[in-house]
Specification:
The protein folds into two domains: 82 residues, 2-Layer Sandwich (Alpha-Beta Plaits); 144 residues, Vaccinia Virus protein VP39 (Rossmann fold, 3-Layer(aba) Sandwich). 28% of the residues lie in helices and 30% in strands.
Amino acid sequence: MRAWPALLLRFPAAGPGAGGAASLPDLVAASLDGLDVMAVLERPDGAWEVSFRDELRRTEAARRLLAWHGRLGLRITRLDLPDGDWARRSQASLRAVRVGGIRVAPPWAQDDDPAGPGVTVVIEPAMGFGTGHHATTRLCLAALQRLDCRRRRVLDVGTGSGVLAFAACALGAREALGVDSDADAIENARGNAELNAGLPAVRFEEADFRSRAIAPADIVLANLTGALLMSAAGALTALVAPGGTLVVSGFTPDERPQVLAAFAPWGEAVWQRQEDGWCAAMVRGGSARYTISSPQ
């Protein structure tokens, strides 16, 4: 079983931040947004376990966090987290999350909100792959529900757990393909396909969308990072079928002008939303084929 490089962050019992100033956990949380973090798990004792994709990212994060917050009492310890152990310990607090008519639930919480309307997607938690709880995933789920997915072909770029691909098929897509350059992500997504056996039109492939020939789709979802969206805008728009729609997320409000500018030569941003410091946008290229609700 794979182990993930992580940092254990401990905070002083009563640190700086009283009197209206930002608390140390708030300051650290803001810093983590720019450190390529995969997952954060808060332990019962108040410490945070922060995981990273590789040792290089962990080392750089430890250096920066210590330089920025060490003088305020932040204590940092390196540790390695077995993927299964992280999932097991997350079960106590991870529940179903609802976005409009879509409910995303871990296997042990499928009965949460049983009377609620809509469809359910079941996702087994795994380190670094979306469970629907992160704001960028929720934003993409909200965007999907503003499109008519029925009989459309959907492409989920950087699919992770596959949650967006499953949601698209649950909303009536003819088929959905999830691609990711991370073999662990594809393994995780295929495992989740067994939990969503009622959605047989979903498939997953290990591929880098920037170098692999992929058939264009009517709806393309790209929940990536601001930097990657900007650098790969041309590759992403080439994946959208004529008259199709591109949904992008994973960028911050500060990055929004540059991200939208990168796609402006191809199409118009017809919907935007911000949540918990993250943004998403729906970009329509060419002639409109799908009904889109009024922006919020």
